[in-house]
Specification:
- By secondary structure, the protein is mostly beta strands.
- The strands form two sheets. Strands 6, 7, 8, 9, 10, 11, 12, 13, 14 and 15 form a ten-stranded antiparallel beta sheet that branches. A five-stranded antiparallel beta sheet has the order 1-2-3-4-5.
- The protein is globular and about 60 Å long.
Protein backbone atom coordinates (compact mmCIF):
# COMPACT_ATOMS: atom_id res chain seq x y z
CA UNK A 1 0.00 0.00 0.00
CA UNK A 2 1.39 3.42 -0.94
CA UNK A 3 2.22 5.68 1.99
CA UNK A 4 1.15 9.30 1.44
CA UNK A 5 3.38 11.93 3.06
CA UNK A 6 1.43 15.17 3.29
CA UNK A 7 3.00 18.60 3.58
CA UNK A 8 1.99 20.88 6.48
CA UNK A 9 -0.08 22.96 4.05
CA UNK A 10 -1.86 19.88 2.72
CA UNK A 11 -2.61 18.76 6.25
CA UNK A 12 -4.15 22.16 6.99
CA UNK A 13 -6.33 21.84 3.90
CA UNK A 14 -7.45 18.37 4.95
CA UNK A 15 -8.43 19.66 8.41
CA UNK A 16 -10.46 22.48 6.89
CA UNK A 17 -12.17 20.04 4.53
CA UNK A 18 -13.03 17.71 7.40
CA UNK A 19 -14.53 20.64 9.30
CA UNK A 20 -16.51 21.62 6.25
CA UNK A 21 -17.90 18.09 5.86
CA UNK A 22 -18.80 17.95 9.54
CA UNK A 23 -20.79 21.20 9.44
CA UNK A 24 -22.38 20.70 6.03
CA UNK A 25 -26.10 19.84 6.10
CA UNK A 26 -25.40 16.88 3.81
CA UNK A 27 -22.15 15.70 5.35
CA UNK A 28 -21.22 12.03 5.37
CA UNK A 29 -21.68 11.00 1.74
CA UNK A 30 -18.22 12.14 0.62
CA UNK A 31 -15.03 13.36 2.20
CA UNK A 32 -15.44 16.85 0.76
CA UNK A 33 -18.78 18.43 0.06
CA UNK A 34 -19.47 20.32 -3.16
CA UNK A 35 -21.88 22.99 -2.02
CA UNK A 36 -25.49 23.42 -3.09
CA UNK A 37 -26.63 26.76 -4.50
CA UNK A 38 -26.74 28.19 -0.97
CA UNK A 39 -23.59 29.18 0.94
CA UNK A 40 -21.80 26.54 3.00
CA UNK A 41 -21.42 27.05 6.74
CA UNK A 42 -17.66 27.10 6.31
CA UNK A 43 -16.55 28.83 3.13
CA UNK A 44 -13.23 27.71 1.66
CA UNK A 45 -11.72 29.98 -1.01
CA UNK A 46 -12.96 29.03 -4.45
CA UNK A 47 -15.41 26.33 -3.25
CA UNK A 48 -17.60 25.88 -6.35
CA UNK A 49 -21.38 26.08 -6.34
CA UNK A 50 -23.40 23.92 -8.69
CA UNK A 51 -24.18 26.95 -10.87
CA UNK A 52 -20.47 27.77 -11.10
CA UNK A 53 -19.68 24.19 -12.06
CA UNK A 54 -22.20 24.30 -14.91
CA UNK A 55 -20.68 27.58 -16.15
CA UNK A 56 -17.17 26.11 -15.92
CA UNK A 57 -18.20 23.16 -18.09
CA UNK A 58 -20.55 24.60 -20.71
CA UNK A 59 -19.77 28.31 -20.98
CA UNK A 60 -16.77 30.46 -21.55
CA UNK A 61 -15.99 32.81 -18.68
CA UNK A 62 -18.60 35.53 -18.43
CA UNK A 63 -20.98 33.91 -20.92
CA UNK A 64 -24.27 32.15 -20.24
CA UNK A 65 -26.44 31.95 -17.16
CA UNK A 66 -27.65 28.46 -16.18
CA UNK A 67 -30.99 28.37 -14.42
CA UNK A 68 -33.59 25.83 -13.38
CA UNK A 69 -32.70 25.06 -9.78
CA UNK A 70 -30.14 22.93 -7.95
CA UNK A 71 -30.66 19.77 -10.05
CA UNK A 72 -31.51 20.70 -13.65
CA UNK A 73 -30.02 23.66 -15.50
CA UNK A 74 -31.42 25.15 -18.71
CA UNK A 75 -28.38 25.98 -20.82
CA UNK A 76 -30.40 28.38 -22.96
CA UNK A 77 -29.80 26.56 -26.25
CA UNK A 78 -32.38 23.77 -25.99
CA UNK A 79 -30.21 21.56 -23.80
CA UNK A 80 -30.69 20.68 -20.14
CA UNK A 81 -27.72 19.85 -17.90
CA UNK A 82 -28.55 17.64 -14.91
CA UNK A 83 -26.44 17.53 -11.76
CA UNK A 84 -25.25 13.99 -10.95
CA UNK A 85 -22.50 13.79 -8.33
CA UNK A 86 -19.70 15.71 -6.64
CA UNK A 87 -16.75 13.76 -5.28
CA UNK A 88 -13.79 14.89 -3.17
CA UNK A 89 -10.60 12.82 -3.09
CA UNK A 90 -6.86 12.92 -2.56
CA UNK A 91 -4.43 11.67 -5.18
CA UNK A 92 -0.65 11.93 -5.40
CA UNK A 93 -0.57 14.11 -2.27
CA UNK A 94 -3.04 16.67 -3.70
CA UNK A 95 -6.70 17.36 -2.85
CA UNK A 96 -9.34 17.44 -5.61
CA UNK A 97 -13.05 17.96 -6.16
CA UNK A 98 -14.68 16.58 -9.31
CA UNK A 99 -18.30 17.20 -10.27
CA UNK A 100 -20.17 15.11 -12.86
CA UNK A 101 -23.23 16.29 -14.80
CA UNK A 102 -25.00 15.00 -17.89
CA UNK A 103 -27.23 16.21 -20.70
CA UNK A 104 -30.76 14.95 -20.21
CA UNK A 105 -31.52 14.35 -23.89
CA UNK A 106 -29.87 11.22 -25.25
CA UNK A 107 -29.68 12.59 -28.78
CA UNK A 108 -27.04 15.08 -27.61
CA UNK A 109 -24.41 12.38 -27.14
CA UNK A 110 -21.39 12.98 -29.41
CA UNK A 111 -20.89 9.21 -29.41
CA UNK A 112 -24.25 8.76 -31.13
CA UNK A 113 -27.11 6.51 -30.09
CA UNK A 114 -30.47 7.51 -28.69
CA UNK A 115 -29.96 5.64 -25.43
CA UNK A 116 -26.89 7.56 -24.22
CA UNK A 117 -26.64 10.97 -22.61
CA UNK A 118 -23.38 12.87 -22.71
CA UNK A 119 -21.53 13.03 -19.37
CA UNK A 120 -19.39 16.04 -18.47
CA UNK A 121 -17.04 16.98 -15.61
CA UNK A 122 -15.30 19.89 -13.91
CA UNK A 123 -12.28 19.27 -11.66
CA UNK A 124 -10.86 21.59 -8.99
CA UNK A 125 -7.60 21.28 -7.08
CA UNK A 126 -6.69 22.82 -3.73
CA UNK A 127 -3.92 25.34 -4.25
CA UNK A 128 -2.34 28.15 -2.28
CA UNK A 129 -5.33 30.41 -3.03
CA UNK A 130 -8.01 27.76 -2.40
CA UNK A 131 -9.95 25.65 -4.90
CA UNK A 132 -8.90 26.30 -8.49
CA UNK A 133 -10.47 24.94 -11.67
CA UNK A 134 -7.87 22.81 -13.46
CA UNK A 135 -9.98 20.98 -16.06
CA UNK A 136 -13.47 20.85 -17.54
CA UNK A 137 -14.75 18.61 -20.31
CA UNK A 138 -18.20 18.63 -21.89
CA UNK A 139 -18.01 14.97 -22.90
CA UNK A 140 -16.19 12.17 -21.07
CA UNK A 141 -18.50 9.33 -22.13
CA UNK A 142 -22.17 8.40 -22.01
CA UNK A 143 -24.85 7.41 -19.52
CA UNK A 144 -27.81 5.22 -20.34
CA UNK A 145 -31.00 7.01 -19.27
CA UNK A 146 -33.88 5.28 -17.51
CA UNK A 147 -36.78 4.33 -19.75
CA UNK A 148 -39.30 5.61 -17.21
CA UNK A 149 -37.85 8.82 -15.77
CA UNK A 150 -35.30 9.63 -18.51
CA UNK A 151 -32.64 10.24 -15.88
CA UNK A 152 -29.28 8.64 -15.14
CA UNK A 153 -28.95 6.02 -12.41
CA UNK A 154 -29.38 7.21 -8.82
CA UNK A 155 -26.30 7.55 -6.60
CA UNK A 156 -26.30 4.80 -3.93
CA UNK A 157 -23.46 5.88 -1.64
CA UNK A 158 -25.65 5.74 1.47
CA UNK A 159 -25.85 1.95 1.14
CA UNK A 160 -22.53 1.14 -0.56
CA UNK A 161 -19.09 2.72 -0.59
CA UNK A 162 -17.16 4.04 -3.55
CA UNK A 163 -14.35 1.66 -4.51
CA UNK A 164 -11.07 3.18 -5.70
CA UNK A 165 -7.95 1.68 -7.23
CA UNK A 166 -4.63 3.35 -8.05
CA UNK A 167 -2.81 1.77 -10.96
CA UNK A 168 0.93 1.15 -10.98
CA UNK A 169 1.36 3.70 -13.80
CA UNK A 170 -0.27 6.57 -11.88
CA UNK A 171 -3.98 6.54 -12.73
CA UNK A 172 -7.05 6.34 -10.50
CA UNK A 173 -10.17 4.25 -11.05
CA UNK A 174 -13.39 5.10 -9.22
CA UNK A 175 -16.38 2.77 -8.99
CA UNK A 176 -19.44 4.80 -7.93
CA UNK A 177 -22.41 2.71 -6.66
CA UNK A 178 -25.72 3.44 -8.40
CA UNK A 179 -29.18 1.92 -8.63
CA UNK A 180 -32.17 1.99 -10.96
CA UNK A 181 -35.73 0.77 -10.53
CA UNK A 182 -38.13 -0.35 -13.24
CA UNK A 183 -40.99 -2.83 -13.53
CA UNK A 184 -40.68 -4.03 -9.95
CA UNK A 185 -36.95 -4.81 -10.10
CA UNK A 186 -34.14 -2.81 -8.54
CA UNK A 187 -30.84 -3.04 -10.43
CA UNK A 188 -27.55 -2.35 -8.64
CA UNK A 189 -24.50 -1.24 -10.60
CA UNK A 190 -21.24 0.67 -10.35
CA UNK A 191 -20.40 3.46 -12.79
CA UNK A 192 -16.67 3.43 -13.56
CA UNK A 193 -14.53 6.54 -14.03
CA UNK A 194 -10.83 6.88 -14.85
CA UNK A 195 -8.72 9.83 -13.65
CA UNK A 196 -5.51 10.26 -15.66
CA UNK A 197 -3.91 13.59 -14.65
CA UNK A 198 -0.49 12.74 -16.11
CA UNK A 199 -2.05 11.65 -19.45
CA UNK A 200 -0.46 8.21 -19.16
CA UNK A 201 -2.83 6.75 -21.76
CA UNK A 202 -5.53 9.32 -22.65
CA UNK A 203 -8.96 7.93 -23.44
CA UNK A 204 -10.69 11.32 -23.72
CA UNK A 205 -9.43 14.85 -24.21
CA UNK A 206 -9.52 15.84 -20.52
CA UNK A 207 -8.45 14.32 -17.24
CA UNK A 208 -11.45 11.97 -16.86
CA UNK A 209 -13.17 9.23 -18.85
CA UNK A 210 -16.48 7.55 -18.05
CA UNK A 211 -15.99 3.83 -18.68
CA UNK A 212 -19.58 2.65 -18.28
CA UNK A 213 -21.43 0.51 -15.72
CA UNK A 214 -20.84 -2.97 -14.31
CA UNK A 215 -23.60 -5.13 -12.84
CA UNK A 216 -23.61 -5.51 -9.04
CA UNK A 217 -26.93 -7.13 -8.09
CA UNK A 218 -30.71 -6.99 -8.36
CA UNK A 219 -33.85 -7.73 -6.37
CA UNK A 220 -37.63 -7.73 -6.65
CA UNK A 221 -38.38 -6.75 -3.03
CA UNK A 222 -40.97 -4.15 -4.08
CA UNK A 223 -42.98 -6.60 -6.18
CA UNK A 224 -42.96 -10.00 -4.44
CA UNK A 225 -44.50 -12.00 -1.63
CA UNK A 226 -48.00 -13.26 -0.93
CA UNK A 227 -49.60 -9.96 -1.91
CA UNK A 228 -48.18 -10.20 -5.43
CA UNK A 229 -48.12 -13.98 -5.78
CA UNK A 230 -44.43 -14.02 -6.68
CA UNK A 231 -41.42 -15.46 -4.92
CA UNK A 232 -38.83 -13.00 -3.63
CA UNK A 233 -35.23 -13.07 -4.77
CA UNK A 234 -32.23 -10.82 -4.19
CA UNK A 235 -28.58 -10.90 -5.17
CA UNK A 236 -25.84 -8.46 -4.19
CA UNK A 237 -22.32 -8.18 -5.49
CA UNK A 238 -19.06 -6.88 -4.06
CA UNK A 239 -16.60 -5.21 -6.45
CA UNK A 240 -12.85 -5.70 -6.56
CA UNK A 241 -10.16 -4.61 -9.01
CA UNK A 242 -7.80 -7.30 -10.28
CA UNK A 243 -4.51 -5.81 -11.56
CA UNK A 244 -3.20 -6.88 -14.93
CA UNK A 245 0.40 -6.63 -16.16
CA UNK A 246 0.14 -3.35 -18.04
CA UNK A 247 -3.08 -1.56 -18.85
CA UNK A 248 -6.18 -1.16 -16.71
CA UNK A 249 -7.18 -3.80 -14.15
CA UNK A 250 -10.03 -6.24 -14.56
CA UNK A 251 -13.17 -5.74 -12.49
CA UNK A 252 -14.61 -8.71 -10.59
CA UNK A 253 -18.07 -8.83 -9.01
CA UNK A 254 -18.56 -11.62 -6.44
CA UNK A 255 -22.21 -12.43 -5.70
CA UNK A 256 -24.28 -13.76 -2.83
CA UNK A 257 -28.01 -14.39 -2.42
CA UNK A 258 -30.29 -15.91 -5.04
CA UNK A 259 -31.41 -15.02 -8.53
CA UNK A 260 -34.31 -15.53 -10.92
CA UNK A 261 -32.97 -17.41 -13.94
CA UNK A 262 -36.17 -18.40 -15.69
CA UNK A 263 -39.91 -18.73 -15.11
CA UNK A 264 -40.38 -19.89 -11.49
CA UNK A 265 -36.72 -20.91 -11.28
CA UNK A 266 -34.75 -19.25 -8.49
CA UNK A 267 -31.15 -20.36 -8.03
CA UNK A 268 -29.18 -19.96 -4.81
CA UNK A 269 -25.82 -18.40 -5.57
CA UNK A 270 -22.64 -19.93 -4.24
CA UNK A 271 -19.16 -18.65 -3.38
CA UNK A 272 -17.97 -19.31 -6.92
CA UNK A 273 -20.57 -17.10 -8.63
CA UNK A 274 -19.01 -14.03 -10.21
CA UNK A 275 -18.94 -11.71 -13.18
CA UNK A 276 -15.62 -10.49 -14.59
CA UNK A 277 -15.12 -7.41 -16.79
CA UNK A 278 -12.12 -6.41 -18.90
CA UNK A 279 -11.33 -3.01 -20.38
CA UNK A 280 -11.86 -2.88 -24.16
CA UNK A 281 -9.98 0.02 -25.81
CA UNK A 282 -12.17 -0.18 -28.92
CA UNK A 283 -15.30 0.29 -26.78
CA UNK A 284 -13.54 2.73 -24.44
CA UNK A 285 -15.22 0.90 -21.59
CA UNK A 286 -15.51 -2.36 -19.66
CA UNK A 287 -17.13 -5.43 -21.23
CA UNK A 288 -18.01 -8.84 -19.76
CA UNK A 289 -15.10 -11.28 -20.01
CA UNK A 290 -16.47 -14.23 -17.99
CA UNK A 291 -19.50 -14.99 -15.84
CA UNK A 292 -21.35 -17.76 -14.00
CA UNK A 293 -24.58 -15.72 -14.04
CA UNK A 294 -26.99 -17.00 -16.66
CA UNK A 295 -28.80 -14.45 -18.81
CA UNK A 296 -32.29 -13.56 -17.57
Amino acid sequence: MRTIRRSHKAMQAAVLLALFAAFSPTAGQAQYRVVENGPPRIKLPGMPTRSQIIRDIYFEKGAGTPSGGPVAFDLGDGREAVWWYGHGFDFDDRDYITAFVYLARGGDSPDGGDDLASVAQATYRMGSAGWELIDSDGHIGGFALGRINERAAEIDTEAREIVRHETADGRLLLAVPVRTFAYGVEQLEYELFLFDPAKVDPIRNGLWAALGPVHAGENNAADCGEEFGRACWAMTGSLSFVPRPGGLPDVKISYRGNRLEGPDHIRKLGPDDFMSYRYDPDERGYVIAASTIAAS
